[in-house]
Structures are given as C-alpha cells and as structure tokens.
Sequence to fold (309 residues):
Amino acid sequence: MRTITCIDISEPVLHFSSGKFTAGSHWKHKPMYHDGNFEIIIVVKGTLYLQVDNSYYVIQTGDVFALPPFHHLHGYKESPENTQYFWFHFFTHKNAMRSLHVDGQDDQSLANLFKKDQIVLPLQYQAVSLEKILIIIYQVLDVAKTHYFTSMSVDYLLTALLIEISQDFYSSLSGANASSAEARIDGIKEWIRANLNAELKASTVAEHFDLNAHYLVRIFKEQTGQTIIQYINQLKLQQAAELLLQTNFPIKRIASAVFFSDEKRFMKAFKARYYLTPTEFRHTYTKKFLDSSHFDPEVPIVLEPPEQK
Fold:
C-alpha cells in the first residue's frame, strides 16, 4: 500500500517556515512532532534515515518526502556528513487535505486522483526532473526572506512548488513501465552525471558502454529528445546555477568548476538556457536564503495553525 495525500489548492497553502540544512558529522534528525503542519523534504545530497511513528524510511538523493501532520519522527541512524536537504513547513486550509492508502501497483487509480484543483503527494518518491523543482525552491526561499507587502506571495509560490512536485510525481507514474531502451538510457544518463568532466564526449560514453558512437547518439536522441552533448551541457549549467546561488565565486571560477574552458562560451550557453546572464541570474535572488547548518531546525515544533477559513 502507498500513502498518498490529496490537497485542495483552490486556495494556496499557508507557508510557515522553510530553509536548507547541511548535516555535520554524527548528525541524525532529532525527535519532532508535526502538530498540524505539513512538511516537505527534498534531499539533494546524501541520505536521511527517518523513523515516522513505527515505520522506517531511507530518503536518498533526489527523493521527495511529503509528511502529513500529526506524526512523530526522528532519525534512527546518522546521516553521512554534508547530507543536504531543503525543508518546508506549511498549513492547509480547513478540510483541504485528506490522506489515503492506495495499492502501490495500481497506477491508474493514482492517476485518477489528479484534478485541476487538487494535487497528489506521495509519502516518498524519486523525482523525475529535480532541476525544475529546484528552480522553484530557490524562488520560494528567496521570497520567504524578502519583506513583500503581502505574505501571500510566498504562499502562492509554495503552492506552485507543490504543483510542480505533484506534476513530477504524475510523470513518474506515466513512466513506471519503462521499456528496456528507456532503462538503458537512464543508466547511461546516471553514468554521465557521475563522470562529468571537461573531456567527456559522446565517443567516451559509447566506449564505456561498448556501443557504436553513432548508434548511441541516435538512440539517446530518440529517447530523450536531446543529443548527448546537449545533456552534458545541461548538467554543467545546472551545477553552475547552483554555484551562482550558493557561493560568491566569480563567474570565471564557476565556468572552470563546471568544466567550461572558455568563460565567454560559458556565459553564452548559460544565457541560452536560462535567458539571463550568470550575473543577472545571481542578482535575481536579492535575498540569499540561510543554509541552516549552523542552527538546529529539528527542535520539536508544536504550532498553532493560522486561523483557517
């Protein structure tokens, strides 16, 4: 059985708190009780080991964990040092949320839950397009730290993030029965991600998988809609976007860090993908969100929800 939460989004959810956490050595999640607030966790590096009531979960890089209210949780095992995740606490409006258990093999029943004014969040799943989710995450955290004239700004952005996660989950269902060709390409993509470097090219990938380079280029394009070089550059630019938002490194250093030998070529490629120069992209986020590595966000949270309609 699969635990699923459906949330009515005819009105936005109510943002309470959010941030990014980086684990130190010998760290594990402290005991908490979610008294009325929902939590979303997106792991971007490392592994979290969480016990929720009497169940145990291993949450790995790329996993989304959506925990409804009124559950106890704590870490049952230490996470690797430098494990990183984003976290969001929010409330829903009265009677806007319901949890249910669905047969984990019945994708059609799950698909039928998706409606124009209702999102569907599984307790845990592996994100299909983490990059798209991360883009909205940075927007939410930026606005949450900026003094907008109305708090609804972050409420609507957080709701947009939940919609993106729900859409991503829907995509994971439609791709559940991947063909052997798709499975092979997924393995190739993971190898490319793990072996990204300045010299990586299509022939290198083909040689590793003992494939003809022309054949690999053709099947990769058929399955992904991208050439291998386009995919490699996408990964490089994704890393560059992370560095632009999380560091003060100069553009030249970032270009080198993501394996672009020429700074001007990097800037041209970045603008072609994000429609902003690297400097404009960095300045878009005027308020840097706080990485909560130096304080403990896992103290027990016992909250009174905002006044609900």
In short: Residues 298-309 have pLDDT under 50 and may be disordered.
